[in-house]
Amino acid sequence: MIYCSLDFETTGVNIVTDRPIEYGGVLYSTGQKKCLDNLGMLIKTDVYVTPEITRITGITRPALDRFGYEGTEVIPLVLEMIAASDAVIGYNCRRFDYYILTEWAKREALKVPEKPWIDLFYDMPWQVPTGKLSHVAADHGILNLFPHSALADAQTVLAIAAKYDESLLLKRSQSPVVVLRSLAPREANDQVKKMKFRWNPSNKLWWKPVKQQDVDEIIQACPFGVTIEKNWTPEELDQ
Question: What residues contact 168, with CB distance under 8 A and at least 6 apart?
Fold first, then answer.
């Protein structure tokens, strides 16, 4: 299988108004265990790069002005890499990078090639703890030397993915994400946290995004009552 592992650094988290300022992509053959192509590029933008974004990514306006490429030069290369792959892979990519890219393509009157998107945030076995990419990498014995550098993050995703069977990840990527809601009383909060449920203060609920194929197994593993939440999506609860 040929993966296109990709990552974007952006001016913020709004998929419509924010813009990509760095792209990292790797074409990788799982059969050859070989990187076929690597691409890392800063991308010029007129959108303000805040001090907070610079703190997180290390990307500054002077760096973009001097070393950045025009977006119209970069996006054809991104789409060519995806077209050459069998599947796109990333971390949190279906909730963020996919939409950043599709909005960008829409602005340029282009279309993103249709490929499966494997998101390691969701598509590793449910027992694997998720969180920051650098932490997940460390749990797998992998060191990301340049966190929030798009190319380094894309390479780190591939190193993690190599720990799992590609057909398992691809199959899991086809299962929808659903939200589980804890029915545990307040005194059981420690157990809820142990099962990696998250607290949403606005809606006053403990919730956990899971793959639909894992629902029965996770419910059986929880030492408290759980139900499928149908009123909220992960994106809405994550805000």
Answer: 125
Instruction: Tell me the per-residue pLDDT of 63-116, one tens digit each, with 9 for 90 and over.
Output: 999 999 999 999 999 999 999 999 999 999 999 999 999 999 999 999 999 999
CA distance 54 to 67: 15
- Sign of the torsion angle spanned by Cα atoms 212, 7, 9, 77: negative
Q: How many CA atoms lie within 13 A of 84 on its CB side?
A: 16
198 near 233, Cβ under 8 Å? no
Residue 141, by phi and psi: left (phi above 0), alpha (psi -120 to 50) or beta?
left
Degrees to nearest 5, angle at CA 117 with 227 and 194: 35
Taking the whole predicted model, whether its pTM rises above 0.85 is answered as: yes
Could you tell me which residues are beta bridge partners of residue 6?
Answer: 25
For the chain, how big is the Rg over CA atoms in Å? 19
